[in-house]
Design brief:
CATH superfamily: 2,3-Dihydroxybiphenyl 1,2-Dioxygenase, domain 1
Strand content: 35-45%
CATH class: Alpha Beta
Strand order of the largest sheet: 1-4-3-2
Order of helices and strands: EHEEEEHEEE
Distance between the termini: 33 Å
Shape: globular
Largest sheet: 4 strands, mixed
Number of domains: 1
């Protein structure tokens, strides 16, 4: 058996707001829609699924929640993405070098509070 890809499914509270954020603002292509409440996005090989579950499942966000990271080509690309997004969404942390790891990154929050990190791993 050959594995083609992994996918993470995350609950969201409003699928249309989530689609607007990931597809329209961040530019991730929606590669699949399943029914009205589930979309799968591609991040250059990584697959992220968001579902507005009928049981009202809560997002896994906040200080103990999920961080979704996107690795860019270099530090200049991280800074350019920050400049592109800084006035369009909720920035959680401005670009900087991580004090413990060889990473330059910034963080923003999606509509459900998931942290999204744009980074360059050195």
């Amino acid at each position: 058996m050959e594995i083609k890809a992994g996918i993470v499914f995350l609950p969201c509270t409003d699928i249309q707001r989530t689609v607007s954020f990931y597809r329209d603002l961040l530019g991730l292509p929606a590669v699949q829609k399943q029914g009205e409440n589930l979309y799968i996005f591609s991040a250059d090989g990584s697959l992220w699924g968001f579902c507005q579950y009928a049981d009202g499942r809560k997002p896994l966000s906040g200080d103990q929640g999920v961080c979704l990271s996107l690795n860019l080509a270099d530090n200049d690309a991280v800074l350019a993405k920050y400049e592109e997004l800084k006035d369009k969404c909720d920035i959680y942390r401005e670009p900087r070098r991580h004090p413990q790891f060889p990473v330059y990154s910034f963080f923003l929050k999606d509509p459900d509070g998931y942290l999204v990190e744009y980074q360059k791993i050195a």
